[in-house]
Amino acid sequence: MSLRVTCIAVHPDDHDKVWVSLGGFFAGQKVYYSSNGGDSWTNLTGSLPNLPILSLVVDDNGNLYAGGDDGIFFRGAGWADWKPFYNGIPRVPVTDLILTSNNYIFASTFGRGVWRSEQYSDCPTTLDISGTQNGQKFFEASGTVNTTGKSTAGLGTQVFYRAGDKVDLKDGFRASNESEVKVYNGPCNSGIPTFFRKNNEGNTTLANYRKAVLPMENSMEFPYAHIGNWTRKGNTIQFKIDILQEGETSLILSNREGTNLRTLWSGTTIGINKIPINIPELNDQQCTVLLFHNNVLVHWQDLNSKVLEQTK
User: Fold this and answer.
1) Which residues of the chain have pLDDT under 50?
2) Which segments of 166-295 does DSSP mark as H helices, in order?
């Protein structure tokens, strides 16, 4: 099966150096590099998630940025792999990237506007983080990360810390309910953490879909459906979904690794449907409900501790 080229990037000073990105859901086939104008190619996919790569841009030093269905990733010249590059830019499809001479990178996104960030800077030995850290952030240091940062915005906040020696959560560090903060040890520029990837390995739900929006709060109105309040009775969670538009609509239960656990409901009839989920089925793992309309992922919503702890 042929793959679609989504972007071509050429080195500003050496036009024989060319990078191409590929769409589709073919694991291990995301980015290729040629040093001889396309006569031969080297696969640079590394640990990129199995999602389409939509855009590429390269700087004067051969450092490469890749924008895809799950945000931006960075690969320095001569590196063996990629690392996440967010700096507050949301994890949404990135359709185009531009580098400027004053050290900024601009990213256009699908449904979330245009964002600006400083370009990549080298991994420090020690990194001190303070203040409010909301949105999508990725911090790393070759030695120690010290943080008194506060992640308090709730759902949609994802902050990741990686250090070669240790990550020290100091007095003042806070993470509110529904904010996601993950910490682990590992060297700088050592690839994309497994928990960071959203791919379709073992997950049929993502094979033909792309994200359209970020997670949103419970009981919100969408153009396609209205998801009602969760209720709990015994060991069963029940919620209502009011289908507002004709078309094939389905609701999938997935874990945070992107594995499809079960199709909760599918249909084409406009109106209200009641959907139960057995709590033992969740098996103490954090799960997500995915809403698809005509094979497009239009919304997802975490099953968090608030839901599981509601009174009977």
Assistant:
1) 1, 195, 197-221, 305-308, 310-312
2) 279-282
pLDDT at 248: 79
Ramachandran class of 8: left when φ > 0, alpha when ψ lies in -120 to 50, beta otherwise:
beta
- Print the domain residue range for 34: 1-120
Residues in the chain: 312
Which residue do the tokens 């199709």 mark?
A: 263
Q: Could you tell me if 84 and 159 lie in one domain?
A: no
How many whole angstroms separate alpha carbon 208 and alpha carbon 250? 13
- pLDDT value, residue 203: 29
**5 falls within a domain:** yes
* Ranges assigned E (strand) in 130-234: 136-141, 144-147, 150-151, 158-163, 166-169, 174-175, 180-185, 225-227, 231-233
Contact 77, 63 (CB under 8 A): yes
Q: What's the predicted TM-score (pTM) here?
A: 0.54
